[in-house]
Design brief:
The complex is a heterodimer of chains A (794) and B (244). Chain A is built from 23 helices and 22 strands. In chain A, the strands form four sheets. Chain A has a six-stranded mixed β-barrel. In chain A, helix 9 (312-353) packs antiparallel against helix 10 (364-390). In chain B, strands 6-7-8-3-9-10 form a six-stranded mixed β-sheet, sandwiched between helices. A four-stranded antiparallel β-sheet of chain B has the order 2-1-4-5, with helices on one face. Chain B has helices at 57-64, 87-97, 113-121, 130-136, 152-164, 182-199; strands at residues 13-26, 29-42, 46-50, 72-77, 80-81, 98-101, 170-174, 202-207, 218-223, 226-232. Classes of the chains: A alpha+beta (794), B alpha/beta (244).
Chain lengths: 794, 244
């Protein structure tokens, strides 16, 4: 008997699912979006983590790195003897200016030595085309693939480089990738630039000859045995290398490429945690709104089942199964979608990162988690509705439908009511009759707006970072670096170059900042008094003058070192005579970018006990002469770096678009879909609840337009209330997101600043979604079957 | 005993139906809900349509009321054809000339009795005052009650008030007492009877209940989509004397 009943109920379940397929699919879609986002983010993060780890291991990426001015090769035995060192690689690594035909800007590059005809011991190359450099030809180079692709270079092409002051024509024999240069970053750039920074691997003896480095090296990488104490190895290295102008050894975490990759992974992990969570919460809200109202419209069927003798448990289970079926539909779709998107997004990252291998093997974890969370959320969201359904009295089905009870409004609302026409009164009473339901619906709409605000916010954040960094702080058009410190005469020379309007000297010295047990490796920048081209900009307070004495730190750096204005910090300069001095923190300023430290250039020179020298010059230029200027700069042997700001800005945009925006893009699409899903469902359910009343109105002589007015009026009012709430909620969600750890990297932090246009767009999209779904409703109202709706009880 | 005279000697035709056929296609089977029905409704008369389930009486009423279109055949209201017209014209026809009363009342639950009536009077040309219409059905005291606060019979009387407040030319009632007990049903029929006699509204009532037939000027019997016979009552019985 029980078995027969269950079968019949299951048939009903299937038919209900089919009958309500529009709504079932749209709820399932929202759940699917949440699951897909979760699966996509977790599996992308997982894949990137596994892939980079495998890449590092397979191609023997170093664990510890050190740079010296020049040290003898015979030290190798001594270095190898440090306890815990596994393999060691000594090499020459030098900055160079590159020149490509048809490219006006000077390009920067790094020359790295490799043994002729074979792979280096560590930091092996992944040869992508051509071959490694041969022993007999000193002009052969292998270049990094990203640079080759950016310029369309292939083996056989030529590239010019100024090496140690001499212009050389080099033949490209191969392209390669390396775990060491996943990201390549010029010294000036805020973020990596594939196009304007190239890696050139050259034969060991060729570079020795070019730089007069026979029997010497200036760069080393080593791997450590498992379980070795890296810190002690670094200490030992520093002692051994100090006489040779070492700027201090560091482990992988300070390696520029690895550090950037790590930042990227951290950011990815934060998005993987936060975005899907927010999305699933909104989805839960929507599921609640929709499913509880859906179950409420089943009242009389429930009564019938009870009258036939189904128990509370059976009825409750029947509706719970309905919820689970909807959730499962969403979960399966979400799994498939998430796996596909995960692959796409991982591929996107892998392409950006130039990873030669890609391990996309999502663990079941992401899938199980997505499914578990969704079912739990759906059941929790509808538990009240399900238990209410289960405990409904059978008598309900036996009587004609009980009209929901309305009461007369209070004096005030009554007065307002008396000004309204009947259709409007219907709308207002519907809302006030079910305040909780109206509130939940408002929150559903508001959630959709909030999601859109959050997803659009990223563009605002990037704009604000660009504005504060490039418009306010770095006001120069061009920064020129020299291969060694020059006397101040060089400033005059720069001013005489074509198109240079004004120029200011700048000094950048690499340094470790130490405060107690806290340490940061970075650089200290010297800025002239009343500088026009470098103006410290606090995002709250605006311009801040650089004081004659003391350091100006970004708040991020001050936090890392636990420093406040007035505190002293130890500065260990990593070049020249390597002085270690104490400096006072004169100012801490709030910035979105990096860990920067500034000081008055005279004070910095005093600190270094140096005569005034100039290693960098910032310049404002006449744009019309930029091409000519760059052409000349390319041919000046003393120039080692040239950074054009407009190029840096577009590169910043490009890189951000390539990485962060992959994720944000998917997220925006889902948010827009959510907006439509919420409005469509709210209106669709209103229609099924009110179909009978609307048909009655039509029979009484009201037009379709009137019926549509009553149907859409309620959601329109709720949408209007939800818009400001959604904007506020969007701001709050964004604040939570911005303050969540993963987005406050050392590289940059996101400003909590939402442009009015973002709110405007979010509002417009929800309004658009309601109009679109209103048009869909219009079709349904037109098809309203006047006769059958009147003959049958709901 | 309360009685009214029969149809006037020179009856004016309010509604004329000719050759009404309604076919439903179910799979390969054609079901004739109506099969070439001819019918005239005279001004001010009270008609009761009797017949078993599936005899086509509701289909006929729906077509006469402009809710449904026949497969073939024509309906003329005051010599104007309504079967050849577009939806907006049908909406106007329903709005201006037809009052409906349904088995399940179909009141708008979020509106009070008065407001339910006002719903219709607001869009009519020459309506009764809603309170007056409610007075006519004996609900003068309950104008500010919501449907949930009214009994089934009271709700049905609000529905009647709503139907007649526009002073319709035609009052169509589909099983108006179907959901009510006999005592309440009689109160509802009294209301309909009063509207018919005091406002002179042409009235058609569908029912299963043959006892209701004695209220009518004419009784139309339907079976299998056809009018089988029409009986004219020489005297109409008053609703309060009915028993079932």
């Amino acid at each position: 008997m029980v078995a027969r009943r269950v079968r019949a109920l299951d048939r009903k379940l299937l038919r209900d699912l089919w009958r309500l397929k529009g709504q079932v699919l749209s709820i399932a879609f929202v759940i699917a979006s949440g699951v897909a986002l979760l699966v996509m983010s977790l599996s992308t993060h997982e894949a990137l983590r596994i892939t980079t780890d495998a890449y590092y291991e397979r191609y023997r990426f170093g664990d510890v790195f050190a740079t010296v001015k020049r040290a003898p090769r015979h030290m190798e035995a001594q270095l190898r003897a440090i306890s815990g060192v596994q393999s060691i690689q000594l090499r020459i690594s030098k900055q160079a200016i590159l020149d490509l035909e048809g490219f006006t800007e000077p390009l920067m590059g790094r020359l790295v030595s490799i043994p002729e005809g074979e792979q280096p011991m560590l930091n092996r190359l992944v040869l992508r085309s051509g071959r490694l450099v041969a022993a007999d030809n000193p002009d052969e180079v292998v270049i990094n693939e990203a640079f080759a692709v950016a310029h369309g270079l292939i083996p056989g092409d030529m590239i010019e480089a100024i090496i140690n002051g001499n212009k050389r024509r080099l033949r490209i024999v191969g392209t390669a990738q390396s775990p060491e240069f996943i990201y390549v970053m010029s010294p000036f750039a805020l973020i990596p630039d594939k196009k304007r920074y190239g890696i050139l691997w050259m034969g060991q003896s060729a570079l020795e000859a070019a730089f007069d480095y026979q029997g010497a090296f200036n760069d080393l990488a080593l791997t450590v045995v498992r379980g070795a104490d890296t810190r002690r190895i670094i200490e030992a290295l520093d002692i051994l290398l100090a006489p040779y102008g070492s700027i201090g050894a560091s482990d992988r975490s300070d390696h520029p490429s690895a550090w950037f990759v790590e930042n990227e992974l951290e950011q990815n992990k934060a998005s993987a945690r936060i975005l899907p969570t927010i999305f699933l919460l909104v989805a839960a809200f929507l599921t609640n709104t929709v499913l509880s109202r859906l179950i409420a419209t089943e009242r009389s069927e429930i009564g019938l089942m009870k009258a036939f003798g189904y128990s509370n448990r059976e009825v409750g289970w029947h509706y719970a199964k309905f919820v689970v079926a909807v959730a499962l539909t969403g979960i399966f779709a979400g799994w498939v979608l998430g796996a596909i998107l995960g692959q796409i997004s991982t591929n996107g990252y892998a392409r950006n990162l130039n990873l030669p291998l890609l391990i996309y093997q999502p663990s079941p974890m992401a899938f199980v988690l997505g499914a578990f969370v969704s079912v739990a959320v759906a059941l929790a969201a509808t538990s009240r509705a399900v238990s209410k359904a289960a405990s409904l009295a059978p008598i309900v089905a036996m009587n004609p439908p009980e009209p929901p009870s309305f009461r007369n409004n209070g004096v005030l609302l009554g007065k307002v009511m008396s000004w309204l026409d009947e259709p409007t009164r219907i709308i207002v009473r519907q809302i006030s009759r079910w305040p909780v339901r109206s509130l939940v619906t408002i929150m559903g709409f508001a959630g959709a707006v909030a999601m859109m605000v959050l997803s659009l916010y990223f563009t605002d954040a990037v704009d604000e970072i660009l504005r504060t960094h490039f418009d306010e702080l770095q006001r120069e058009d061009l920064a020129i670096g020299f291969n060694e410190p020059k006397s101040s005469v060089v400033l005059q020379e720069v001013l005489h170059l074509p198109g240079v309007v004004s120029a200011e000297p700048m000094r950048i010295v690499p340094a470790d900042f130490v405060s107690g047990h806290r340490r940061h490796r970075g650089s200290l920048q010297g800025v002239i008094r009343d500088s026009k081209l470098t103006q410290i900009y606090d995002v709250q307070r605006g311009q801040i003058p650089v004081p004659p004495n003391g350091l100006v730190l970004t708040s991020r750096l001050a936090e890392k070192l636990e420093l406040r204005v007035g505190d002293e910090v130890e500065v260990r300069v990593l070049e020249g005579r390597r002085p270690v001095v104490m400096a006072k923190v004169a100012e801490v300023y709030d910035s979105y970018v990096g860990m920067l430290a500034y000081q008055n250039i005279d004070a910095l020179n005093g600190l270094l006990k140096d005569r005034p020298v100039t290693q960098y010059v910032n310049a404002k230029i006449d744009e019309s002469q930029q091409v000519e200027l760059l052409k000349q700069l390319k041919n000046l042997p003393a120039v080692s770096t040239v950074a054009v700001k407009s190029v840096a800005v577009s590169n910043f945009n490009q890189t951000v678009a390539d990485t962060m925006m992959i994720f944000v893009g998917f997220f925006s699409v889902f948010s827009f879909a959510l907006g439509f899903g919420v409005t469509y469902n709210a209106q669709r359910i209103s229609l099924s609840e009110r179909g009978r009343e609307l048909a009655t109105l039509r029979v009484l002589g009201f037009s379709r337009r009137d019926a549509l007015y009553i149907l859409l009026g309620e959601t329109t009012i709720l949408v209007c209330v939800a818009l400001p709430v959604g904007c506020l909620l969007g701001w709050m969600v964004t604040a939570v997101f911005v303050n969540a750890g993963g987005f406050q990297t050392e590289l940059m932090r996101l400003p909590l600043l939402i442009a009015p246009s973002t709110f405007g767009t979010a509002v417009a999209v929800l309004l658009g979604a309601s109009v679109a779904s209103g048009i869909a409703m219009r079709r349904l109202v037109h098809k309203l079957d006047l006769i059958s709706v009147l003959k049958t009880r709901e | 005993m309360h009685s009214t005279s029969k149809t006037p000697s020179q009856p004016e035709v309010t509604l004329r139906a000719r050759g009404l056929t309604k076919v439903y296609q179910t799979g390969e089977v054609q079901v004739f809900a109506l099969d070439s029905v001819d019918l005239d409704l005279f001004s001010g008369e009270m008609v009761v349509m009797l017949g078993p389930s599936g005899s086509g009486k509701s289909t006929l009423l729906n077509i006469l009321g402009g809710l449904d279109a026949p497969t073939s055949g024509q309906v003329f209201f005051n010599d104007e054809e309504i079967t050849a017209t577009i939806d907006s014209a049908l909406t106007r026809y329903r709005r201006d000339y037809v009052g409906f009363v349904f088995q399940f009342y179909n009141l708008i639950s979020s509106l009070t009795a008065r407001e339910n009536v006002a719903l219709v009077t607001e869009i009519s040309k020459n309506p009764l005052d809603p309170a007056e219409a409610l007075e006519l059905v004996g609900l003068g005291e309950r104008v500010d009650h919501f449907p949930a606060q009214l009994s089934g019979g009271e709700q049905q009387r609000v529905a009647i008030a709503r139907a007649i407040a526009k002073r319709p030319a035609l009052l169509l009632c589909d099983e108006p007492t179907g959901a009510l007990d006999s005592k309440t049903g009689i109160v509802v029929l009294e209301a309909i009877e009063r509207v018919n006699s005091e406002l002179g509204t042409t009235t058609a009532i569908i029912t299963h209940n043959s006892a209701t037939a004695s209220l009518a000027d004419r009784v139309i019997y339907l079976a299998d989509g056809r009018i089988t016979r029409i009986v004219e009552n020489s005297t109409r019985q008053a609703a309060r004397d009915l028993q079932w």
